[in-house]
Write a structure and sequence with these properties.
2 domains; four-stranded antiparallel β-sheet; 240 residues; Glutaredoxin; globular; five-stranded mixed β-sheet; Nuclear Transport Factor 2, Chain: A; alpha+beta
C-alpha cells in the first residue's frame, strides 16, 4: 500500500514538473513572439484572471495575450463578480511594490516627523503640478505624510527635464536641490552614477503617463496632483 501511494505521489509530481516545463517553453515562445512582433521586452508571463488569457508584464506595461499567441490586448480587466474590481490595477500594484523596494535607496525623501503614511511620487522638476505639490511639502509632512520622490522626466531621457533631475539626484543636498529646482531657481549641473533612467523606465512599466503620479502604500496609483487635505482623506479611507 505504501509503495502504491509513493508511486502515485511520484507520478503526480513528475506530471506537474512536466506540465510546468511545457508551460515555460510555451511562455518562452510567446515572449519571443511579443518581442519580435512589437519590440517589447517581456519580464514575465503568467496566467491571468481571465480563462484563455495570459498576462505579460513588459517594459511598457501589462498586456494580455491569448494562450495560442494569436491575440494581444492592452487595456483594463474588471471583475464583475467582485464589484468591478480592476484586475489589471491589482496586478500592477504588486509590480509597483516590488519596484519601490528595489529603488528604496535612490528616492529623495521628505519625511514627516510624526509619520502616519508614506507615499512615493513620480516627479519632474519642469512639471507645474509637481511644483505645486512640492510647494506644500510642509503641509503633507504636517499631516503625517512622508513623501518619497522618484524621477520621471516627461520628455524622456534626452530632455532638459532629464538633465535637471540628474542634477538634483547628484547634488550634495538632493532635498534642497529639489526644492530649488521646483522653485524655478537655477541649479548647478551635476553628474554622477544615478538611477534616473531606471526610475523613468520603471514608471513607464507600471502605468505612469504624466506627473505627478502618486503610489500609495498598497501599490495603487493616483494620477495627478492631490492637495494635502484630499490625500490624507484618501489614505485614511484605504487604511480604515
Amino acid at each position: 500500500m505504501i509503495r502504491t501511494f509513493s508511486f502515485i505521489a511520484i507520478s503526480g509530481l513528475l506530471a506537474v514538473l512536466s506540465f510546468t516545463a511545457q508551460a515555460q517553453q510555451e511562455y518562452a515562445d510567446l515572449r519571443a513572439k511579443i518581442t519580435d512582433s512589437i519590440g517589447l521586452s517581456v519580464d514575465s508571463i503568467k496566467p491571468s484572471p481571465v480563462p484563455g488569457l495570459l498576462q505579460a508584464m513588459t517594459n511598457r506595461g501589462l498586456f494580455y495575450i491569448s494562450e495560442d499567441g494569436t491575440y494581444l490586448l492592452h487595456g483594463k480587466v474588471f471583475n464583475l463578480d467582485k464589484g468591478l474590481q480592476n484586475e489589471t490595477e491589482e496586478a500592477l500594484s504588486v509590480v509597483r511594490l516590488q519596484g519601490l523596494e528595489r529603488f528604496s535607496d535612490s528616492v529623495i525623501e521628505f519625511k514627516a516627523q510624526n509619520e502616519k503614511y508614506e507615499v512615493t511620487v513620480f516627479t519632474d522638476t519642469t512639471c507645474g503640478y509637481c511644483r505645486k505639490l512640492h510647494s506644500q511639502i510642509d503641509s503633507y509632512n504636517a499631516k503625517g505624510i512622508t513623501v518619497r520622490y522618484l524621477a520621471f522626466p516627461r520628455g524622456g531621457v534626452s530632455s532638459d527635464g532629464f538633465k535637471s533631475l540628474v542634477s538634483v539626484w547628484c547634488a550634495e543636498n538632493p532635498q534642497q536641490a529639489m526644492t530649488d529646482a521646483k522653485a524655478g531657481q537655477d541649479i548647478s549641473n551635476k553628474s554622477c552614477k544615478n538611477q534616473v533612467s531606471a526610475h523613468y523606465n520603471f514608471g513607464q512599466q507600471v502605468g505612469v503617463q504624466g506627473t505627478p503620479a502618486i503610489i500609495l502604500g498598497n501599490g495603487n496609483m493616483i494620477p495627478g496632483y492631490q492637495p494635502p487635505a484630499e490625500l490624507i482623506k484618501i489614505l485614511d479611507d484605504i487604511n480604515s
